[in-house]
């Protein structure tokens, strides 16, 4: 979070109960063709195994190092959640450690440091088999107390029985000291909602799940990410949550909501990008830059001759203005990685650059630079 925004959160936030926001869509922004977002030609691998690794996510540690977590796939449904590490601000990554390995549906890793050298990793951890393809769904949390070198089981943040599942954890620090974990929960095949659990003991125990977005619609919201910024209309802190949804279903488009109370309530739901009819845009993640503007990365088959989602998708990126009275202006997308590329992530490197991660024949990354006028 930019320092200029951090100090305002404590002064302006009133963390009071409220109802979830309406799912009604806000007046969409007019896309801009702004060319100030530069896609740098600096692709690098996130692993020494350059050809195996998917769903990469980045986290910054207290000493400035960056950890990349991703899923490695082996024979006979072997899955390994691996970690690589960068000590040069994301220029190079070296294989570093493993979180867990096993035969099962182990995927969607997300890591966060909760204290110096104390890191948590949340991931989906489902059992295969049975009538529905799964026999149990979990969002599992492991911890490392030595900077990510060794890992041990800590807790289950959420779990349930089939047939409907839970997926895609994302974690952030709340201003009240709680660790917020957000995930996607299926209530019906065409109804998926964004849920939140909170821990006040560094992941040992978690609150009951609470729906924070999507309760009043029949869309399939998912793949959530959150960035912290400022609303320039009143100079107050804001969170922006991005997700894929099925407003024009069954195909996916990208939307966002904004929170002014540290993620308790959300409003100003609006479209980020709607691909041409019959095409998809999904799996978004978001980062904020030093001026409060936003970068959203996602995968889309908007130019594919054959639509076979999730295949034939490229990784693209859009830039968003800082919120102003709940309104964000988004640019048209630019290509970061060509088809077929999958499951992007993003993290700010400094005030003007972000590192985009994705699978393209292995776990890769490329930087983008925002050059304001």
UniProtKB/TrEMBL annotation:
* InterPro entries listed in its UniProt record: Sialidase_sf (IPR036278)
Give the superkingdom in one word: Eukaryota
Residues folding into a coiled coil are none
Q: PANTHER family recorded for this chain?
A: BNR/ASP-BOX REPEAT DOMAIN PROTEIN (AFU_ORTHOLOGUE AFUA_7G06430)-RELATED, BNR_ASP-BOX REPEAT DOMAIN PROTEIN (AFU_ORTHOLOGUE AFUA_7G06430)-RELATED
Q: What is the lineage of its organism?
A: Eukaryota, Fungi, Dikarya, Ascomycota, Pezizomycotina
Q: Which organism is it from?
A: Talaromyces proteolyticus
Its name, as the record gives it, is Sialidase
């Amino acid at each position: 979070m930019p320092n200029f925004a951090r100090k305002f959160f404590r002064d302006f936030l009133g963390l009071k109960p409220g109802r979830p926001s309406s799912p009604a869509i806000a007046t969409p922004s007019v896309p801009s063709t702004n060319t100030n977002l530069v896609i740098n030609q600096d692709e690098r691998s996130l692993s020494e195994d350059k050809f195996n690794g998917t769903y990469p996510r980045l986290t910054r540690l207290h000493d400035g190092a960056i950890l990349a977590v991703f899923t490695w796939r082996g024979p006979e449904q072997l899955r390994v959640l691996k970690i690589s590490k960068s000590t040069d601000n994301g220029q190079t990554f070296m294989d570093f450690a493993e979180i867990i390995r096993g035969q099962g549906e182990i995927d969607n890793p997300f890591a966060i440091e909760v204290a110096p050298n104390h890191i948590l990793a949340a991931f989906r951890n489902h059992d295969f088999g049975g009538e529905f393809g799964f026999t149990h769904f979990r969002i599992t949390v492991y911890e490392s107390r030595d900077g990510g070198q060794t890992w041990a089981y800590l807790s289950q943040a959420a779990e349930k029985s089939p047939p409907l599942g839970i997926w895609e954890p994302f974690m952030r620090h709340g201003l009240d000291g709680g660790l917020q974990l957000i995930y996607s929960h299926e209530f019906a095949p065409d109804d998926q909602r964004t849920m939140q659990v909170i821990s006040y003991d560094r992941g040992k125990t978690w609150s009951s799940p609470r729906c924070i977005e999507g309760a009043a619609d029949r869309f399939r919201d998912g793949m959530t990410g959150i960035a912290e910024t400022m609303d320039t209309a009143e100079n107050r802190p804001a969170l922006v949550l991005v997700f894929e949804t099925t407003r024009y279903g069954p195909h996916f488009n990208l939307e966002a909501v904004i929170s002014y109370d540290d993620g308790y309530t959300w409003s100003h739901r609006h479209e980020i990008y709607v691909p041409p009819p019959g095409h998809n845009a999904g799996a978004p993640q978001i980062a904020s830059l030093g001026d409060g503007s936003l970068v959203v990365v996602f995968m889309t088959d908007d130019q594919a001759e054959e639509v076979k989602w999730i295949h034939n998708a490229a990784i693209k990126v859009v830039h968003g203005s800082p919120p102003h009275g709940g309104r964000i202006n988004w640019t048209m997308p630019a290509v970061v990685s060509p088809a077929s590329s999958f499951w992007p992530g993003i993290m700010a490197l400094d005030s003007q650059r972000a590192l985009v991660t994705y699978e393209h024949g292995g776990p890769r990354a490329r930087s983008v630079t925002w050059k304001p006028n």
